[in-house]
């Protein structure tokens, strides 16, 4: 059933807050697309800096194969691997953590390690740039299968907001997109499990979960009490924690005020405020003894 929103802010609500602060309620100097894009970049930046989104994927290992590209193994949106985030189902009987080693460490500690026969993996190495993970020793036939479990931090999905094209009590159809309107994602199921809220217009106040998305028709399945229509302004709810939604607003103000000319001072002001509050948020998210993780967050 639909829910009235809590303190979470959907993308269109954030968009309206930014427009109000810019003193431009309808598009003129700033296009709607510029504001929506800045809000999405803010969400990406927050997730990358704060490492606040985490999930686990399972990779199927292959006999005598050491490296695996996570972009084709269910983790294309990975930012980094969590500490103690790699486990292996050794010999199909024991679930144990693997120890991280850089390639330099492996070269120093295990000379000729890349030529060692396949066996039971004990260590892993990680290339953040190429999103590939390697195992040493590489798995043998006994350790080939859905045996590698990776827990890591990931980017959020790019959110959509704007004026619906149409809707029923079981679905909403997104706008087609243009030079000034956001394009819906062209991949089926991309928006699955995100929450969408009707901000204003018919059906305002409803927040529902998207259960399926068909890209070719721009249609998201969701259960509404009041059917949205072409007067319904909607926004998807950010995946990052609610406490960080206001940071997206500050990030977007910093980018948009800094568009040019005399507005650069205001842009600098909001950028400073964003990074100050982001630092506070990161400090609240991390345990006080996670010093290494805190340092890595600011690299």
Describe the structure.
The chain has helices at 11-21, 32-50, 103-109, 245-257, 264-285, 291-297; strands spanning 54-61, 67-69, 78-90, 94-97, 99-100, 123-127, 132-136, 145-154, 161-163, 166-168, 171-173, 195-200, 207-209, 212-214, 219-221, 233-236. With 299 residues, the protein is α+β, with helices and mostly antiparallel strands. It has two domains: 11-50 and 158-278, no CATH class; 54-154, no CATH class. A four-stranded antiparallel β-sheet has the order 1-8-3-4, with no helix packed on it. It has a four-stranded mixed β-sheet with strand order 2-7-6-5, with no helix packed on it. The chain starts with 10 loop residues before the first helix and ends with a helix.
Q: Mean of the pLDDT scores?
A: 92
Shape descriptor: globular
Q: Which series of helices and strands comes N to C?
A: HHEEEEEHEEEEEEEEEEEHHH
- Uncertain segments: 1-5, 288-299
Radius of gyration: 23 Å
Question: Approximately how much beta-strand content do the residues carry?
Answer: 25-35%
Annotation, overall tally of beta strands: 16
The number of helical segments is: 6
What is the makeup of the main sheet?
A: 4 strands, antiparallel
How would you describe the oligomerization state of the chains in this entry? single chain
Strand order of the largest sheet: 1-8-3-4
Distance between the termini: 43 Å
Number of domains: 2
Bin the helical content.
25-40%
Supply the helix-strand structural class: alpha+beta
């Amino acid at each position: 059933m639909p829910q009235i929103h809590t303190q979470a802010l959907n993308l269109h609500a954030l968009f309206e807050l930014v427009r109000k602060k810019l003193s431009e309620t309808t598009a003129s100097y700033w296009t709607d697309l510029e504001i929506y894009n800045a809000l999405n970049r803010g969400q990406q930046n927050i997730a990358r800096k704060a490492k606040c989104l985490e999930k686990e994927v399972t990779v199927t290992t292959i006999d005598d194969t050491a490296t695996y590209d996570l972009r084709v193994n269910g983790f294309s949106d990975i930012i980094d691997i969590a500490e103690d985030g790699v486990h292996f189902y050794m010999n199909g009987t024991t679930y144990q953590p693997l120890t991280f080693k850089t390639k330099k460490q492996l070269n120093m500690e295990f000379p000729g390690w890349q030529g060692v026969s396949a066996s039971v993996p004990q260590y892993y190495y990680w290339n953040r740039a190429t999103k590939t993970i390697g195992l040493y020793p590489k798995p043998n036939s006994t350790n080939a299968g859905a045996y590698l479990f990776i827990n890591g931090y990931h980017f959020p999905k790019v959110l959509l907001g704007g004026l619906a094209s149409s809707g029923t009590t079981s679905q909403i159809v997104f706008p087609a997109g243009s030079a000034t309107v956001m394009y819906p994602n062209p991949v089926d199921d991309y928006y699955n499990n995100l929450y969408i809220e009707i901000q204003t217009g018919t059906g305002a106040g409803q927040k529902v979960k998207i259960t399926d998305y068909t890209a070719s028709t721009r249609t998201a399945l969701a259960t509404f009490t009041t059917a949205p229509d072409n007067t319904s302004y909607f926004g998807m709810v950010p995946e990052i924690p609610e406490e960080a939604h206001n940071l997206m607003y500050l990030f977007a103000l910093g980018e948009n005020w800094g568009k040019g000319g005399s507005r650069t001072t205001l842009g600098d002001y909001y950028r400073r405020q964003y990074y100050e509050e982001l630092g506070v948020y990161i400090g609240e998210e991390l345990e006080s003894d996670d010093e290494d993780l805190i340092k890595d967050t600011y690299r």
